[in-house]
Amino acid sequence: MSKLNVEGTMLFEQPFVRVPYENYRKIFKSSQRNLDSQMAAVATASNDLSGRAKAGGHVPADAAKSIDGMIGRVENLKRKLSDLQESAGQPTQDVMRERLQYLAVVENVPNTNAPEFSRWADTRLDRWLVDWALRTGKEKTARQIAKERSIETLVDIDLFTDIRRIEGALAKHSCSEALAWCSENKVALRKIKSTLEFDLRLQEYIELCRARKPQEAIVYSKKHLVAWQDTHLEKIRQVSALLAVLPTTSCGPYKRLYDHARWDTLVSSFRLAAYTLNTLPTEPLLNLALYAGLASLKLPACYAHETKNADCPVCDPALGKLAEEVPFSHHVNSTIVCSITGRIMDEDNMPMAFPKTGYVYSREAMEEMAAKNNGIVTCPRSGSTCEFSALKKVFIS
To answer: Where's it mainly located (predicted)?
Structure first.
């Protein structure tokens, strides 16, 4: 039985809980803004009514009208908060509850051989597949998997759909959607010191210069760029020159500002900011899990044709390509695997060496080969042959 490493398992699950938490935080902030604005208006009306009463200049009819207005505001606030809770707050709480219950299963699992863990791990794999599909633009596939596996509340389809919607708008050279997103997440973006909003404003200014609308560009700069001069003064000065520089310029610095490739950079910057706010890794979770497994198996022998093992995932061409990005594994005690059978060589399956070449294979492989060839064995690498009895046992210390 293998004991479950709960802490290691939970390392992958931070975004799993953080995403609904961030959604509920936004809902709470929206409720708080509504509450503050309406109660401030009620407090102002109440103070005004109290002041007139003390001065002895109030009219009963006006006082009743003012009180009715305050009651109306409070009732309207109650209705708004109730609607917000029913439409967004309660569903988000339900998602948080289901996800926490899903994670709680791990803490009660005795070991990795338990049936409960197998079911939990299968669901986790389904979640990772949905995550991969959403990141690679396969939304229909993601929705189908989520529906068939009944894991809609355990995946973040709406979040990735919104991210792709904004990325699509940027790809069409529109900053409006991304700027609206920045406005909704202004405080969080400031905490991570993101310059995404400035970059978007800068691009809108560049597009006005590209369209040769100098007056509109100047007004836009005063309204949206000047506020960033404390931190981006040098960049603002540089783009100001675009008023006098045509988009067809061959001057390096200004040619780069007019380059349409800046839109691709904005897409990448937005995606990074969105992932960071939701503590999502930049790589699909499935890839990260594969990296961890491949790093524990990767050896130099996996990339040499003559030492590849058919049963080794890293020796597979596709997974081997993915494994190029991870470091080689470190083993205190080496494990020797037969290149013919793919089985481990140990005291029960001794390594056997050819006398001339020194190439080593497992006893099982050599016995099977000798049985088929009248006691003669052939080295697959060098082609040399000898009798089975001529093979030498190899003892590794």
So the answer is: cytoplasm
**Strands 376-378 and 385-387: what pairing?**
antiparallel
Looking at this protein, which amino acid is placed at residue 290? L
Long-range contacts of 272-276 (CB under 8 A, 24+ apart): 273/189, 273/192, 273/194, 273/196, 274/163, 274/166, 274/181, 276/192, 276/194
Integer CA distances (angstroms), 32 to 22, 38, 66, in order: 15, 10, 24
35-71 pLDDT, tens digit each: 888 888 888 888 887 777 777 766 777 778 888 888 8
Architecture of domain 336-397: 2-Layer Sandwich (3.30)
Query: Model confidence over 9-38: pLDDT tens digits?
Result: 887 788 888 888 888 888 888 888 888 888
Spans of all domains in the chain: 6-113, 157-277, 285-323, 336-397
Helices (H), the chain: 6-10, 14-55, 60-84, 90-107, 115-135, 139-148, 157-171, 176-184, 186-191, 196-210, 214-220, 229-240, 252-258, 261-277, 285-297, 317-323, 363-372
Tokens 């005063």 correspond to 222
